[in-house]
Amino acid sequence: MWHIGKLRNGVIFNNDTYNCNSVFNRFIIDYQITNFVLQGTDKGKSPMVDMRCSTSIALSWKPPRTRFLKLNTDGAWKNSEEGGGGGVFRTNKGEWYFGFSSKYNVVSALAAELYALREGINYARAIPVRFLEVETDAQAIKGLLNKEPEDMHHELAALIIDVGRLLRNKDMTIIFNHIPRETNFVAHYLSRYAMDMHIGHKPHYTVPASVKAAYDADIRAMGAIA
Predict the structure, then answer these.
(1) Which fold is adopted by the domain 1-226?
(2) What's the pTM?
């Protein structure tokens, strides 16, 4: 039901489109990760890894180019009073650098995605990061960021303009891309982690247990590609 609700929000607020196979695959992978975390399996061979490798190696997280860190972000939203977001920085070897989960008071799923993206870039500035690749699975964001500020007629206009300004920061070289949801599972689970938090913001200096299966799957996929 959680998946159906999120997909519904994506269609209404982000103008997303989906096919039945994509929805079913997302549910199966999510189900297997949950079993892996809550029930335990042979940690050397997670069922989720088998699923991803057997479907398509192309649909996996890709490391950034040399000298770059990669930031992946995602947002989660239940209703007008509760939203959250998460993000993770990783090296070109896939190593965990830094992550975060945060609760937001937002009006839509798109707002949660934008808040998570803005928070991630602000963390990059604070670290500071000189070369950064940024990825989000919210397709609507890239289209909105391509609009000129004077043509912006949107309830989230101020937030969108602020994110665009951060992405154009002259102190950093930033490459911004939209990616399929299937390649953004670590950030996805960080955003879900935020929804269950009792505090507003939580930094992750090591891999949280709730995202470890997804993180390990990305590392294994890197090895399969290599």
Answers:
(1) Nucleotidyltransferase; domain 5 (3.30.420)
(2) 0.74
